[in-house]
């Protein structure tokens, strides 16, 4: 990386500059903007310009997506942050703490699914009547095989 030009500090970034610096495709940035995750203003020539805070917002979005947080949840969380300011360490701590319970729940579900998969490997049936993996929560199977609601 080169030296920072003092004249560039505070200067809005083009979509190409944000893409290059964040490692996110221009199309993804446009998508994030359409979903309200990031914001831009238009230059006199109609081009998108982003505040430098968008780089930290994009980093938060990518980190949250990597752990499986939905864009809807990310959007709601970012909407609580002050507009035009980069998320701080305290902001990230608050967001990640809130997402931790969801992540722990998904880990527990995946662990249970993995353990049930071992049963299927043992029996090999994948029976629609009895398989907890293929047909979870099938309460009607207790009444016998075949259609029960006809």
UniProtKB/TrEMBL annotation:
Alphabetical keyword list: 2Fe-2S, DNA-binding, Iron, Iron-sulfur, Metal-binding, Transcription, Transcription regulation
Transmembrane segments: none
Entry's Gene Ontology molecular function annotations: 2 iron, 2 sulfur cluster binding; DNA binding; DNA-binding transcription factor activity; metal ion binding
Gene3D superfamilies in the record: 1.10.1660.10
InterPro entries assigned to the protein according to its UniProt record, in alphabetical order: DNA-bd_dom_put_sf, MerR-type_HTH_dom, MerR_fam, Redox-sen_tscrpt-act_SoxR, Tscrpt_reg_MerR_DNA-bd
SMART domains: HTH_MERR
GO biological process: response to oxidative stress
Annotated ranges, domain HTH merR-type: 12-80
Superkingdom of the source species: Bacteria
Annotated PANTHER family: REDOX-CYCLING DRUG-SENSING TRANSCRIPTIONAL ACTIVATOR SOXR, REDOX-SENSITIVE TRANSCRIPTIONAL ACTIVATOR SOXR
NCBIfam families: SoxR
Protein name: Redox-sensitive transcriptional activator SoxR
Source organism of the structure: Pseudoduganella flava
Encoding gene (name): soxR
């Amino acid at each position: 990386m080169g030296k920072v030009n003092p004249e560039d500090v505070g200067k809005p970034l083009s979509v190409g500059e944000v893409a290059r610096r964040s490692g996110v495709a221009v199309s993804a940035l446009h998508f994030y903007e359409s979903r309200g995750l990031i914001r831009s203003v238009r230059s006199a020539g109609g081009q998108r310009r982003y505040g430098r805070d968008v780089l930290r917002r994009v980093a938060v979005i990518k980190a949250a997506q990597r752990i499986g947080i939905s864009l809807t949840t990310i959007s709601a969380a970012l909407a609580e942050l002050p507009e035009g300011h980069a998320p701080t360490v305290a902001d990230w701590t608050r967001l990640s703490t809130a997402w931790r319970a969801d992540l722990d729940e998904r880990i527990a579900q995946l662990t249970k699914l993995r353990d049930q998969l071992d049963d299927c490997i043992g029996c090999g049936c994948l029976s629609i009547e009895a398989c907890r993996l293929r047909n979870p929560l099938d309460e009607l199977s207790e009444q016998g095989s075949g259609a029960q609601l006809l």
